Amino acid sequence: MILLRRLQGDVLRRQRQRQGRTLREVSSSARVSLGYLSEVERGQKEASSELLAAICDALDVRMSELLREVSDELALAELAQSAASDAVPPPMRPMLNPIRVTSVTGRPEERVTIKAPAEAVDVFAA
């Protein structure tokens, strides 16, 4: 799943690093806590439009430029995700083959073998 907040944080971080500025400098200029700005850059927090405007002002970047870059990255991520899903065949349904076996202790138990395309897994039910 593509998270917009993660893409937005990546773009904000790159903008800040291009300018050679620290988180502390930008957080002070934007009047945002250092920890919160760090979480926004790491995509852990969703920035409100007011917060985003303050960060853009601190970075001297137009919000439209920031959002355009985020939009471009989103388009690329969607294309990559689409290409990856087209390359993977749909999952095959495993086949269940229940058989009755007698355990070492002499107690009957049902054994179910699940055969997946690449592997087989044995499941025991007492």
Written description of the protein model:
- The chain has 126 residues and is of the alpha+beta class.
- It has two domains: 4-87, 434 Repressor (Amino-terminal Domain), CATH 1.10.260; 95-125, no CATH class.
- 53% of the residues lie in helices and 17% in strands.
- The chain is built from five helices and three strands; from the N terminus they run αααααβββ.
- Helix 1 (4-18) packs across helix 5 (63-87) and helix 2 (23-30) packs across helix 4.
- Keywords: DNA-binding.
- One of its GO terms (molecular function) is DNA binding.
- InterPro entries: Cro/C1-type_HTH, Lambda_DNA-bd_dom_sf, TransReg_Diox_bact_type.
Protein traits:
single chain; 126 residues; alpha+beta; 434 Repressor (Amino-terminal Domain); 2 domains; three-stranded antiparallel beta sheet; 3 strands; 17% strand; elongated; disordered C terminus; Lambda_DNA-bd_dom_sf; DNA-binding transcription factor activity; Cro/C1-type_HTH; Helix-turn-helix transcriptional regulator
Topology:
Blueprint: H1 4-18, H2 23-30, H3 34-41, H4 49-59, H5 63-87, E1 95-102, E2 108-115, E3 120-125
Antiparallel strand pairs: 1-2, 2-3
Structural class by SSE content: alpha+beta
Could you name the CATH topology of the largest domain? 434 Repressor (Amino-terminal Domain)
For the record, give the distance between the C-alpha atoms at the N and C termini, rounded to a whole number.
40 Å
Named at the architecture level, the CATH assignment of the largest domain is Orthogonal Bundle
Would you identify the CATH H-level superfamily of the largest domain?
Answer: lambda repressor-like DNA-binding domains
Query: What's the SSE pattern?
Result: HHHHHEEE
* CATH class placement of the largest domain: Mainly Alpha
Total count of helical runs of at least 4 residues: 5
- Estimate nothing, just give the exact number of structural domains: 2
| Principal-axis shape | elongated
GO cellular component, one term: cytosol
Keywords: DNA-binding
Protein name: Helix-turn-helix transcriptional regulator
Organism: Streptomyces lonarensis
